[in-house]
Structures are given as C-alpha cells and as structure tokens.
Queue: 2 jobs
Job 1
Amino acid sequence: MGDKGYGISPAVMENIAKELEEVHKLGVELAVVIGGGNIFRGMQAAAEGMDQAQADYMGMIATVINALALQDAIERRGAQSRVMSALETRPVAEPYIRRRAIRHLEKGRVVIFAAGTGNPYFTTDTAAALRAAEIGADIILKGTKVDGVYDRDPLKHPKAIKFKELSYMEVLSKQLKVMDATAISLCMDNSIPVVVFDVTRPDNLRRVITGEAVGTAVGDRSSRGRRR
C-alpha cells in the first residue's frame, strides 16, 4: 500500500514486479506468497469482535486481489506468471495443485500463491513455509519494511540490536517476530533457511539471491549461509 494507508500503490507494485522480473531473468525459479493486509486484516477484525474464521476467509480473498494485481504488473514487464489460489476462484486463478505448481516453475513461470493455506487460523507466514516445503524450495525470502530481525522494534527503539544470523530454536525461544511459531517449526522440520530483508530497498532481492549478506539469516548450521 506504500504511503496510501490502504489499498494498492501502483508505484510499489511496479517496483516489486521489476525486482521479481530482474531476478527471474537470472534463471531463478520464483514462487511468491502474498498477503492481504493492505486491504483487510483478519486478525484485527477478529480482535474487534468478528468471527475468527469469517475474518480469516475475508483476508484470504484480499490476497487474491493482490495476487492478480502483481500478476498484471509482472506480465506487463514481459514475464509469464500464474496465480494459484488455495480457495476456489476459477474465473481468475488456478486452483492450487502441487505438481502443477512445480511444472509452472519448470516452464519458467513466476508462480503466485494466493489465499494462504485455504484454511482459517493459519497465517501467511505458515502458508509460505508450507508451500516452500511442498515445492522443495531452496530458501524462503521474507520481504518486510525493515532490514532484518531485531531484539526490539527498531522503529520504536533506536538502540535495538540487529541479528545477522539466528537458529530456528533461537527464534522460538526468544519469541522473535520473524514468523509465527508454526511457520518457523515447519521450516526447521524441513531444513528450509529463511532470510528476512527489506523488500522496499531497490535491488535488495537480487542482492539476496546472488549471495550478499543482506538482512538476517535464519536456519540450522547446515543451512545458514546458503543463499540460493
């Protein structure tokens, strides 16, 4: 949403599409899991009294809107993409089928996963970890508004300390706001490293993909430092 406060910022969408398209040109297979908080926040609505499942389904539908917007921006740059939704939205997106998603990636298409896991009570982070495990992803790159993981919110605490590397267990024991516990546990069980980085900084996605020490790396000893 950029600085709009709500909805989709065309400038932000174009910048993200540009970053994805440039990395895609390097021959990298890209699958994108997209959230919907710029349109509707299920957790916030539930906290204000809405039924949790109803709020979560509304949030999933919001991710489909974002996925279609991102697909349009990517394809206007000349790359091929497919939106795959965990909720059935056949007129606008393919249903999520694991083997079909892998085939799209093999054919050089950017795959955009929408509607989370298709189930309420699960976050977008958990959807990312689940899809990464299903398609055999080498790594999860979590794009945020900050340049890594800190011991405190760096926007509120100027003296917050940034971590360069963390183990899965450190994230869980310190209750760091990297991903929710379910997502981190899925990554740990499947040895999928995670890099948390600032997606708003130009060229950061390419820098992470090509192995530069950007953001915070989360993983076990065998996976930390692997940037593929």
Note: The two ends are 29 Å apart (CA to CA).
Job 2
Amino acid sequence: MLQGCTAPEEAFPDWAGDFGRQAPLELEIGPGRGAFALDHATKHPERDLVAIESRRSDCQLIRVRAARRELHNLLVVQGDAKLLVPRFFRPRELSAVHVQFPDPWWKTKHHKRRMIDVELAALFRQLLAPGGEVDFRTDVPAYFREASQTWLGAGFVRLPEEPPEVLSTRERRYAVTGQPVFRARYRNPEALTVAAAMDRTGRDWRDIRRK
C-alpha cells in the first residue's frame, strides 16, 4: 500500500490497486485528526478517499481509527499536499476535493504557505472530472472571500448552499459556541477552459486574527 511520495519520473499511483477496486476517487487536504475523513468514508462506502496530512502523528491516529472501523475506502498519506497532489493524480481522475479549515498562516512571511491560491485552483480544474466538486470550509472571513474569488477565477461554478452531510470536529464545536463557519461548494464545468493570467496570487488577504 502506498505510504509516501512517488518520484517525478515514476508512474502515478495505482489507486484502484491500492483500494482493491475501481470507485469514485476523492481527496481531502489536511484532515487533521480525521473526524471528517472517517465519518465521510463511513457514510459513503461506495467512494474511495485519499487524505493527505502533514503531521505524522495525525496520520497514524487516523489509520488506527480507520482500522478499528474496518474502513477499506480511506487511505492516509503523510506529506505536503502541494508537492504530492500533482504527482498523485491524473487529469480528471478526482470526483471531489475537500479543503476544510486550512491554516491561515497569519504572519506575512508565511503567506506563501497558504493552501488556496490561483495555482492550486487551476490544478484542480485539471484533476477534477467534469461535474466534480470542491468542498471548501473556513472560519476566517477574508480567507473565504479570497478563496471564493480564486475558485471562480479558475472557472469553477458555485453551487447552491445546502447543509453539509458530515461535520468536522471543529464545526461541531462551533455549533455549540456560535463561532461562524463559512462554507461553499464549487462544480468543475464540462468545458476545460484556460484561465486568464491573473495579477493576484490568492494568498495576499488580511483579516483580524481571532483570539
């Protein structure tokens, strides 16, 4: 079973071989301790989910919990998603992408590390199948506004709002404390148009840091 990064000159991972079947393939970036990934995989046994997490301890925790639930449709990979995603997935191979509560990286010198930018959005336009969806959630208003502009600028179409099927641990906590959560889903249209060059990165937003 795949555990790490394929070298650039090697073939893409054989996901059907790793999961032991051919099924719709989804990706979650930054699952944290895995509450969403585990519940989503449980709710949708007909789908396969790859979760990429940078923290090794969280990867191990999710794997243990997935084994306890006997979830064979969830595979966790440790590493940097921005480096791994282009090496892991072929064009139009993904049916959905979940990006929930990415790190805001508040310090100016760290803005370049923010997950959602115009390059990533353009990449997902290529990797998602026609009709594939992006599920984006954050608790930072400025991140939500900038990411929305970024997804739309890449050619995605925003879908009507509806309650999420599965909540993350953070969302369950916020439901009690009243902290707002900003959610949106975007569909990859049939036509794969070439996005116009932008003079923005999608990373240069600012907001008041919540204490």
Note: DSSP finds seven helices and seven strands in the chain.
